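Subject: sequence -> structure tokens, single chain

Hey, anyone have a minute? Need the predicted structure for the following. Not urgent.
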Amino acid sequence: MRVAAGEPSRRTRLLSVRVCDPEPVNLAQAMKRIVPAVQDLKRRSLDQPGGETTMPPSLIALRDDRVLAVVTAPRLAAVLSCAQTLAIGLAPQMLVVAAQVTLPARGATDDVPAQAEGEGIAYTTFNRDRQASLAVQRYLVRGGEVSFGPPERGRPDDRTLMDELARAMSQESLDPARVARKEVPVGAGDRPTFIPEPEGRRALDAGTVKTAYDKVRGIGGTALFLAADGTHATRMLAAGLPQECLLGGD
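Reply:
Had a minute. Here:
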């Protein structure tokens, strides 16, 4: 996958897609959770101000086998700048970059099948087991409606995105059991007082998403946290998550 030097365009050009071995089970399960959310982003992108129809690049974090947070921005570089933030603060099992791509026409060779010109969404993934993958999902827009084909396993010509995700996921995540209270109780001296681990987890999640949001909102981006349920949503707001960054539970 090639990204132009300087400010990356909102549309990435994918030079070739090669069908590889079948999807590993864990990746297939992750894609089942990611693809519907990205498809919804693509549908919404068809109705943007100024007639823009390109889906903005998105960074998605999965943890405990569910989508936890999504960062979107008009520029791919801005989205990628949040990868280490999410990896360190959210302790995700997988990070995914979803971006709209242009698929050029290509003749068949001994290595790859023929490819028709068209549009698609590329999903670049990297997990905690240091496994990287690329999947491409074609789509077709007719009469303002978009239809999607099945995602196909691919192989990138340029590993830039995978390398960025690898660098992020190589960082050690923060320990939710070692989140200290802001106010030190009287008599505690200089010793930190740690809050219970579940509270620490919520504090890290809220602070991480807020940091990502602060990075991208100046250019029209957003960061969203997907709460598991109403109780979780309420507790996340109490932990400092901005209201505009919260999505309700399933």
